[in-house]
Structures
1.
Amino acid sequence: MKKRGKIGSIIYIAICFAFFYIPIIVTMVFSFNSSKSLTRFTGFSLRWYQALVEDRDIMSAVGVSLSIAVIATAVATVLGTITAIGLSRNRKVVKEWLINVNNIPIMNPEIVTAIGLMILFSSMKIQRGYVTMLLAHICFCTPYVITSVYPKVRSLDPNLANAAMDLGATPFQALTKVIVPMIKPGIYAGMLLSFTMSLDDFVISYFVTGNGVANISIVVYNMTKRTNPTINALSAIVIVIIIVTLLIVNLVPEAVKKRQEKRVEKNKRMMQENMDSRKLD
């Protein structure tokens, strides 16, 4: 019975992985198709990557998406981290109330948020375009950073900052040299989530943008109205960038950790050798 259950769970997991990843693999394979067919592979070609690079609208959209994602992620990370640290210093009632308020944009349907932001910008007579899209992305990315960072801040000893200041550190030094290094995993998680959400967003971007300003999602949506295999090439590049980013995020900290462990071991060995040499003397 246990073997059957184990085999059943393996089959179930395999089906789930196939359902999730086969479409991605197919998209990447057909990005090298020599014809316009999206269902029949006729031969290997890089023509769609060449068409992608030569398409000014797509390249402009890539630039808009990357610039907005980077700026929105940086601003949201700073705002979200400061807010999470500030929340930990508030009273329990205020803290719980603010956390629930922070969860509203996350649980709220994107279409509602998009309409609300569109009405806000229109009522303030702000011309919709790059700036409004950037403000909207900062608005919906910040709650994700707060949600990622706050649990790490809450797990810290509340007396750490006071102890650092008692030892002569300024409030800013206590923040940057004591608190921030200890909550780095939460900050990195919020940063990565914000970047992904910003790069992927379509609904909010579509409602708050203006003429001549479009990100990747809007361009892809417009391209789906006609058969255009350039979508496959663009999707394949985005997938590769995401995979490389995930590899860097997961492998670099491990490599740094191993290097630090080797340094610690080397220092211990040198200290032990020095102590042994002194004993012999």
2.
Amino acid sequence: MVNRLANSTSPYLLQHATNPVDWWPWCDEAFAEAVRRDVPVLLSIGYAACHWCHVMAHESFENADIAAVMNANFVNIKVDREERPDVDAIYMEATQAVTGHGGWPMTCFLTPTGEPFHCGTYYPPSARHGLPGFPELLIAVRQAWAHRGDQVRQAAARIVGQLTERAAPLTESAVDDRVLAAAVDALAAEFDQKHAGFGGAPKFPPSMLLEFLLRHHERTGSQAALSMAQRTGEAMARGGIYDQLAGGFARYCVDAAWVVPHFEKMLYDNALLLRAYTHLARLTGSVTARRVAEQTATFLLDGLGTAQGGFAASLDADAEGQEGASYVWTPSQLIDVLGADDGQWAAELLAVSPAGTFEHGTSVLQLPAEPDDAPRWERVRAALLAARAARPQPARDDKVVTEWNGMAITTLAEAGGVLDRPEWIAAAAAAAELILGTHLVNGRLRRSSRDGVVGQAAGVLADHAWLAEGLLALHQVSGENRWLHAALSLLERAREHFADPDHPGAWFDTAGDAEALFRRPTNPTDTVIPAGASALASALVTASALTGSESYREAAQAAVGRAGMVPAKAPQAAGHWLSTAEALAHGPVQVAVIGAAGDAARTALEARAHWAAPGGAVVLAGEPGADHPMLAGRDLVAGAPAAYVCRGFLCERPVSSPDELQAQLQGRIAGSAG
């Protein structure tokens, strides 16, 4: 038997399509059914790579007796948080307000009109660890609804009222040099001097903070900012959070030392970390950072690439119900694969011990130091990868999310330009073609697709912002104007449908004509991914530098100012805002390269520009007389290709040698303003 989830484009919902629970997808009909039956709604939110979502599904949603209680007393709605980030956002706020914490699986009980009155996360099938058993909770909620329905509705109204009050736009606050420097000081106070990173366990990869610290160092020369970024990048690259065999980062570590990850791999983490490691390699010359950038890009293409040209959302934490089963090793397993000599060498190299670092004496592979025998390591790594491929493999959530694909397009294009990897740029272009060809329906952007079939969920602000940013990155590395035109069209749609007309600089996460929820979502904080508003502000900065549009620049400045209290008071929740503010403070930097296509001198200048330009800069090459705002009025110098560097409203003298260009970009030549 299958339920109403069987036709979904979400792999997570499809995982529940054969449950005995009479699941509904999120839809008006489900709430109408709750009104007709006069029963509460049980809303369960999760995602495909979530370990504890799988646990609760197995324990409760696959249990016929528990399912019978759910079906008799509730209308049950299952939501993929990645497909409906708007629904997830407002009920996560409610869960955090009610319980003081949040996470997935998220379990909320709602009135038939959608207001939450009781919220939680994982519930076991019987009481343990201070948590009530899920069946007992179901009965208690149903009895409260039946016998104290008015009180339940009043409680729901209070929760909604409190959340609505909290959602008021922030007071405007400038993000100037003082705030940016203070953010570095605040991060230094939170820096883990022993293990690197920020705070304690669990520890998440701080991709956006790394990008901010690198941009701040490039603009100001701050060694404190560079040191924190270098040490954190090195620690993660050496630790178990990084897949030492195939590349790619896990979502977070359960410990403070980067040893034991929660094994799921998310597209958004790896896309953002590709950017950070590319810039680490560019700035420091680190062999490790370059290796990690290259392997992470390879993981994106080989591990998450889809047949249609996009990028899948994630790889699961589990394989055949066991967390991390694909990834962990014992010393004897290494010897079985490699033989005694190589096996013992690999165990020492990869910190695999008899005691283990994970469960049941197994260890997560680490690489505390670069191998002293590189050819031997490559031979060992290939053999271990082949052996691992024969193990049970984690499931893949192969839906294509617009926002996260926009991140991948952005960073693959950027990294391809910096590290001279045209195949990465080609992969970014293929993903952009898929999104523009499939996710744009009647002029409006959709959130996701699967197997080339677009889903029904409307695109949110972050979808528009990141796709625009990715298209602008493609425009820079390819010179193709079609990417620019498509990006500007998306930005105009975003300004039309998502701006808060009553509070300049504030943005809603859903369009004005989107489905009405109990509160229109808006969140100015960067979490594990950038806020929709900070992503849009960054895209507007890039667009302003490429087009010369004062309107875009003013909109970006207004957005940064509206969110300014976040970087000022909580920089750990403002990494992307801080990066965007750094780009604005730096000019942003513009590099225009003029020369005939195919000219070796132009190619050399363009390559050096991509390598040496600071994070947040824009780089564009074209021929003399090109019809482009950034290239217009610029020509060859003494008949030779030339590069023009500008910061804001000041420009350096044009130069014709890559070394002079790099010197200008690194601030070693005080060129004349023009």
